[in-house]
Structure formats: structure tokens, C-alpha cells
Design a protein that fits this description.
Elements: H1 9-23, H2 28-35, H3 39-46, H4 54-63, H5 68-87, H6 91-98
Length: 99
């Protein structure tokens, strides 16, 4: 059975930034232009390929008109949900405990 691992911060930040961009109905090009970064770099951030600096994260959240604290709290909430899911015993483990 594969061990469940906590997701990396950069993946969670990227997912949240993509979600916020989609909520605004924007393309990568539009957001990247306002943030002052390349569309390719923003794409890499959103996919969790790059570990962006705090300055880059602030530039993107600024371009999305989202306070940095909203990004961080959204990521933290998602991490808590993932943690809670990881703590749930699997059905197989629950049967083993009952025996």
C-alpha cells in the first residue's frame, strides 16, 4: 500500500492561485501581464513546478486583487482538510482494528 504524503506547499499555492484566477475569469496571459511575470512562469507556479519567492506570490495576488492573507488562509484550510483525510483509517485498517 502506497504511503500517503502531505502535499507540497508550492503545489497547494499553485492550485489556489489557479482557482482564484479562474474565479476572476482571466487567462494566464492577463494575470501574468499585470503581475509583471511571464505567462510561462505563472503556469509553472500554478502547476507547482516552481517554488515562487514571496515577492512573486505577492505580485500574482496583487494582480488578482486578492490579499496575501486570503491566499495563505485558503491554502492552510486545504492543508487541514488533506491532513484530516490522511488521518481517516482506511476500511481495511478499520476491519483490522475490529478483529
Amino acid at each position: 500500500m502506497a504511503e500517503k504524503r502531505e502535499p507540497l506547499w508550492r503545489h497547494m499555492v499553485g492550485e489556489r492561485l489557479r482557482h482564484l484566477r479562474h474565479v476572476r475569469g482571466e487567462t494566464i496571459d492577463q494575470t501574468a501581464r499585470r503581475a509583471g511575470i511571464s505567462p510561462q512562469y505563472l503556469s509553472e507556479i500554478e502547476r507547482g513546478v516552481k517554488e515562487p519567492s514571496s515577492e512573486m506570490i505577492a505580485a500574482v495576488t496583487g494582480a488578482l486583487d486578492v490579499p496575501l492573507v486570503d491566499l495563505v488562509s485558503g491554502v492552510a484550510e486545504r492543508l487541514v482538510a488533506v491532513r484530516d483525510t490522511m488521518r481517516q483509517p482506511t476500511v481495511q485498517a478499520a476491519f483490522a482494528l475490529a478483529a
